Amino acid sequence: MTEQTSTPLPAYEHTPLTPSEERTWAMLSHLSVLVNLFTGFVGPIVALVIYLVFRDRSRYVAYHSLQSFLNQLIWWVCGGTIIGLTWAASLTLSVVLIGLCLLPFACVFSFMPLISVVQGMIGAVKTSQGQDYSYWWVGEWVRGTLTGE
């Protein structure tokens, strides 16, 4: 009887990503905003999963996926809450005609999540080309959080 010796395989989770893989996963984290168009809320979860899976393997992917997660959380969750409250106030107050004045605001606020879609598409294109992309209100905060500054 012969003994088989097995050598342990290297830990996959500690293998760094290639530059091509980094660009692909960063692009996918930005494109996760498109999932919201079909589900309404799953996009931030996709970006968060990408962050949790790749945060130890690539700082580039961690930075872009965390940015995408926070940006979507702000625009889709907070924006959705604002939209809902605006429409509720508008419809409630329409009984006394004040709400009719608020209808244009409710309509404008309804387009807030589309800003996130546009930003995600721009981020996806830039990261697929190997460029850095920063969301204007969470980018520097995320960078400081990940670098410890």
SSE arrangement:
Blueprint: H1 19-31, H2 35-39, H3 43-54, H4 59-93, H5 98-109, H6 112-128, H7 139-147
Helix pairs in contact: 1-3, 1-4, 1-6, 3-4, 4-5, 4-6, 4-7
Structural class: mainly alpha
Tally the beta strands: 0
Number of helices: 7
H and E string: HHHHHHH
The gyration radius over C-alpha positions equals 21 Å
Fraction of residues in β-strands: under 5%
Uncertain spans: none
Mean pLDDT: 84
What is the approximate shape?
Answer: elongated
Question: How many domain modules?
Answer: 1
Largest sheet: none
Question: Which bin fits the share of residues in helices?
Answer: 55-70%
Distance between the termini: 59 Å
| Multimerization status | single chain
Structural commentary:
This protein has one domain. It is built from 7 helices and no strands. The longest helix has 35 residues, at 59-93. Helix 1 packs parallel to helix 4 and helix 4 (59-93) packs across helix 7 (139-147). The radius of gyration is 21 Å and the shape is elongated. With 149 residues, the chain is an all-alpha fold. The chain has helices at 19-31, 35-39, 43-54, 59-93, 98-109, 112-128, 139-147.
Characteristic key phrases:
149 residues; mainly alpha; 69% helix
